[in-house]
Amino acid sequence: MSKRAFSFQKVLTLTFLLSLVLLVSACRIMTREEAERIQQSKNAKASLSDAAPAYPASNPKLPVKTTHLTLEGKKSIVLTDARGFVLYYYVPDTLAKPACTGACLTAWPPLIANTDHVSFCHDKLPGEFALHRLAEGKQVTYNGHLLYTYINDRQPGQVTGNNLYQWFAVTTELK
């Protein structure tokens, strides 16, 4: 083999190895606990408490309903949006400085009220609702927690984001 062919082969080998290292470092390997948590949330049993209508009218009562789910082996009453999709809160969020911003809002769309005149009269729920004004609109809060949905929940009552990177389904027990 000539020196030139040997040098070319060496460059190709180094390029391949460097590409492989970059590819492997770009991939994140899920821990067993994360995989089990995701599987548990996919297996959560759901039964909607009542039929979920389309989005609420322009002056709705509260755009929140409830559903009964089993979360981590415990039966819970979970809050949903008007369509029946589970609502979540993010532990690092505060009303003064929401932690879910930018691209996070694509995966976790906020529950936005379309009006200033939302009636927060909900006799089934023990907590307090309010509207919190953000750049994205008037986000609904429950007991001081900003409310979100999760893009991977594909149907009403499905809960795939619970206990995922500090995201939790909102239950009536949330303080």
Automatic annotation (TrEMBL):
Signal peptide: none
InterPro entries for the chain: Lipoprotein_repeat
Pfam families registered for this protein in UniProt: Lipoprotein_15
A GO biological process held by the record: alkane catabolic process
The name this protein goes by in its record: Lipoprotein
Record organism: Ktedonospora formicarum
